[in-house]
Design goal:
Elements lengths: L29 H10 L8 H5 L7 E6 L2 E14 L9 H10 L6 E13 L2 E5 L14 H7 L9 E3 L5 H4 L16 E5 H8 L13 H13 L3 E4 L4 E3 L2 E5 L8 E7 L2 E7 L7 H4 L11 H18 L2 E4 L7 E7 L2 E6 L2
Parallel strand pairs: 4-5, 5-6, 6-7, 11-12
Antiparallel strand pairs: 1-2, 2-3, 3-4, 8-9, 9-10, 10-11, 12-13, 13-14
Amino acid sequence: MKRQPQYAACVPRKDPVTVDTISRRHVLLGSGVLAGAAVAGVLPQFGPAAQLAHAAGATTHALKLGDFEITIVSDGHLVTPTRLEAPDVPEAERKAALTAAGQTAEMAQRPTNVTVIKTGEELIVVDAGSGPNFMPTAGKLTANLEAAGFDIEKVTKVIFTHGHPDHLWGALDDFEEGLRFPNATYMMAEGEWDYWMSENAEKGLPADRVTFVAAARRNIAGIEKKAQRFKTGQDIIPGLRAFDTPGHTQGHVSFELAGGGDSLVILGDALLHPIISFQHPEWRVGADHVVDQAVETRKKLLDRLAADKPRIIGFHLPFPGLGRVEKKDNGYIYVAAG
């Protein structure tokens, strides 16, 4: 008998925000959003050498969990300022944590690990990657899927942890005119969908992230005809369940996969960094929308993961992002696992 997911009550969600109907004509083009973020100092400007730096070498990692075949597929990597990892922390402490993670330069390479789940007739992609219009070092998912033997036309579901560019923008094709996975149903948690489409989505966001709102709305509009919204705590398919992990975004969710007496938790960005998120969950992270809520989520999540010992997949943890949470002294550590 399959073990059922146990994380649905991990963190309570706030009341959902109001949906706002958005006209496609009134949102920004992806290139404009990227340019605005670069000007704001969030994204680096890339020359031709940087654009070619991650072009070669599809990367995948496969494992099984009961009847589920799981493949972690690289979408490439992001290049982001290391200062955003913990901007309020004294520089010496932040540098020590970053050095322990091998991040000694002003800019850090952050892997983007997409999880693919196959069982029976279902082929499910968890988050759609960046697509070609966010960073030139990312957007490699389609090529890497095909190199691993997957047919994108056979993907049945695309399910999202949240609506940030590196998770959502790859839902549309390279021209942003059609669906990258044409035969899939696109599924997003009600709270996350409602947040991005609300009139107040920009409120409280750092200036460098305001442009993400228009881009999320554009991509949501692009998938809307084939989209479904789900409630946390319900099964996406038997054995695969979403649970609340808010803070990184207002409606961020993670997924638990249960099978063969074991379980696997797909974290999205609930735990972002292999040192900071685990050893210093109380540090405020520049990428989080609701920083205090994100801190609370990390603390509760780490406690559960260390106690129950499932394997985890982190979207930005060192490829393939697969490991476990262990207690050490009065805190936690990330331990890579096969």
